[in-house]
Write a structure and sequence with these properties.
Length: 314
Amino acid sequence: MQKSENGSIQKFVWTALFLGAIGVVPLTVSAFQIDLFIALFINIIVVVSFRFLTLTGEMSFCHVVMMGVGAYTTSLLSRNFDFSPWLTMPLGGIVAALTGYILSYPLFRMKGFYFVIGSFAAGEAIRLSWQGFRPIFGGSRGVTVIPTLDLLGLDLGNPILFFYFAFFVMAVCLFVMYRLEHSRFGLTLHAIHWQDLLISSVGVDTRQYRTQAFVIACFFAGIAGTLYAHYFSAINPRDFSMTIMLTVLVWAIVGGLGSFSGPIIGVAVLSVVDLYLRDFEQYRPLAYGLILIVTSLFLPDGLRSLWSRLRIAT
């Protein structure tokens, strides 16, 4: 009993210290660094939601495009039709989820490599439509002058205020996805990944579960897209290209797909690496490729396993 109480106290203390540090960060760093933190929070939602789908054993190459669906939905509704962003942001997630649900019908007739190719083709079709239908989506120029958020008279266009808001949204999204993964539903997704034929033999509709995981992942990607749109006030099809999708994939794999925290670690570490590569953008794919190869060879479970390996070594 005492050990349990001590463990609870330690968790409380560490949580309080972490939240205190988060509260102080935007007051002590530059505006550029605040932008980096906000982008980090958005990217964490994207990569963790991407991992949520991989619980079933599938990898979607249209995940970043689902983020774009959320971004375009909230941008067009709030700018062109004067809808409140507080309404269009959840709608962005819902439209992304509905898009994922529609795509699930053809995509989940395929598995493995064929699912990857099918999701890539579906994502590119959507992204190219944003470029092709210029009167609606703005073509390659995209959508600009997207309204900022206002909360009780506070302008969330202020980077410091948006920092707190983005952190709160990220925390809620992570909490929901964590609870889902550790629920009976999440355990079923894990079982489908490793023993889909056995699970099917006892009457579980594996396609339905895969569809639900895909729709949930698309919803959270859409929410990340709405944050991106309302903070940076401009979006275009290049923001959701295959290059960005491959970056998300590298973040997830390098961090470690085997745990909830792995992709978060991957995003955080590689975001720091990106800072050092800003002046050498042409070498960024090479650096990412080398990091991916080294991680696959020496840390097959991702960076999340590095601490345990160091403890064993010592």
